[in-house]
Amino acid sequence: MARHNDIGKVGEEIAAKHLQDKGFKILSRNWRIEKWEVDIIAEDNEERIFVEVKTRFSEDYGNPADAVTKKKQRYLISAANLYANQNNYEGKMRFDVVCVYLEKGKKAIVEHIEEAFY
After folding, report:
1. What is the pLDDT of residues 9-34, one digit of tens each?
2. 41 burial type by CB count under 10 A (0-12 exposed, 13-18 middle, 19+ buried)
3. Residue 51 three-state SS
């Protein structure tokens, strides 16, 4: 597995724990259908949260949340709609971004952006 994939998996583990610590119920990780994938699908107060996780060692290449482009947002919205159809889900949905900063020898920093886009 490529190094960036390993880093991404570490970030997703940290993000999932962060969400659970906030009281979210993790429903799925790396949910896939056809060409679509969502890093984490969680539930909070009967609302489905579709979470994109971005992991970085620093902000040298910009804020990780900026990597969630309009194109990526449309991709996640399409995936969420497929999820809703597949699971007969008609409730509220929202899209969050969790940025995980990993700095060698230090505790990870987690930034959770709720309702990052619509």
Report:
1. 999 999 999 999 999 999 999 999 88
2. buried
3. strand
